[in-house]
Design goal:
Largest sheet: 7 strands, mixed
CATH architecture of the largest domain: 3-Layer(aba) Sandwich
Structural class: alpha/beta
Helix content: 40-55%
Strand content: 15-25%
CATH superfamily of the largest domain: Translation initiation factor eif-2b, domain 2
Shape: globular
CATH topology of the largest domain: Rossmann fold
Number of strands: 16
Length: 346
């Protein structure tokens, strides 16, 4: 299991590994205020759908610790502000809203401010433990799809940095296969504009000693066509009821290229990423991020001043491009509708 930890609860504050500083330096932030955590989420100092869920849960606990109120009713009014602040950070990753919803429900069932604070912290720890268990399980299921000698292409970062667990989702599958003694090789696209592939996935794979090759995003089709890739494994930020998947921008292109070249395309994510309230991927909100991320790299301008920039952080891959969805409940295949519902509700 990976020893990489992107967050840790320290009793009255949250320790975060600042992912914007990797791979050049390993810097930890001590967060004791929920507003500070919200800003860290917006700035992607912590990122990845499952990790955002765990962080948001602890964010509610942090906010609760700061509240001074004599009655449950007054406490819940102030806690609503904490909830709204955290919920406004990033719109696409459903795990954040799933965790916040659980925390809110626990608070509403409480009897007094002091009891609610204890219950919120216990629930946050429970969410983290469930998250860890889920990623261990889905990694084992997914490893069964990886044969000895495979070359696997992944996209963005879906490792321990993105999940707040010992195993990642997509990288967890790869890691579990490697731990089983399978000789595998990983192709890692850089993942523009914030380079999560070259900065984070490459760093994780190097830390674990798993062989990999770094490529630019627009090289993937070349290697898929030349039969250099045996399968593609990616994570997910939200899975609609019909199996459509939102993931880092560029995922849809990879899925189309994989199908064109007869390469299996797998999505690995915990059941908390499934959103049964959305009938298809057309309903998934897509975060639009700052133009600065596209026209600059590390603060250096790479485009003429004043150019128009589009920067959607995610795209949606229709379910018919997806060979299987790997969850802690097992490997799910078409038809997805009923199987996703069962995985989510069981």
């Amino acid at each position: 299991m990976s020893s990489i930890k992107c967050l840790e609860w320290l009793g009255d504050r949250l320790l975060l590994l600042d992912q914007t500083r990797l791979p050049q330096e390993k810097v930890y932030l001590e967060i004791s205020d929920y507003k500070e955590l919200s800003q860290a989420i917006k700035e992607m100092r912590i990122r990845g759908a499952p990790a955002l869920g765990v962080a948001a849960a602890y964010g509610m606990a942090l906010g609760a610790l700061q509240i001074r109120a004599r009655t449950k009713e007054a406490f819940l009014v102030k806690l609503e502000e904490v909830y709204n602040t955290l919920a406004s950070t990033r719109p696409t990753a459903v795990n954040l809203f799933y965790a916040l919803g659980r925390m809110k429900a626990v608070a509403e069932q409480g009897t007094s401010p002091s009891q609610i604070k204890q219950s919120l912290l216990a629930e946050a720890r429970r969410i983290e433990e469930e998250n860890n268990t889920a990623h261990q399980a889905l990694s084992r299921y997914g490893a069964e799809l990886i044969q000895d000698g495979f070359t696997v292409l992944t996209h963005c970062n879906a490792g321990a940095l993105a999940t707040a667990a010992g195993y990642g989702s997509a990288l967890g599958v790869i890691q579990a296969a490697w731990e089983q003694g399978k000789k595998i090789h990983v192709f890692v696209p850089e993942t523009r504009p914030l380079l999560q592939g070259s900065r984070l996935t490459a760093w994780e794979l190097k830390e674990q000693g798993i062989p990999f090759t770094l490529i630019t995003d627009n090289m993937a089709g070349h290697f898929l066509r030349r039969c250099k890739i045996n399968c593609v494994v990616v994570g997910a930020d939200r899975i609609a009821a019909n199996g459509d998947v939102a993931n880092k921008i560029g995922t849809y292109s990879l899925a189309v290229l994989a199908q064109e070249n007869g390469v299996p395309f797998y999505v690995a994510a915990p059941a908390s990423t499934i959103d049964l309230s959305l009938s298809s991927g057309d309903d998934i909100p897509i975060e639009e991020r700052s133009p600065q991320e596209v026209n600059h790299i590390k603060g250096i301008a790479i485009a003429p001043q004043g150019v128009v920039v589009a920067n959607p952080a995610f795209d949606v891959t229709p379910h018919y491009y997806i060979s299987a969805i790997i969850t802690e409940k097992g490997v799910l295949r078409e038809p997805y509708q009923e199987r996703l519902r069962k995985a989510k509700l069981s």
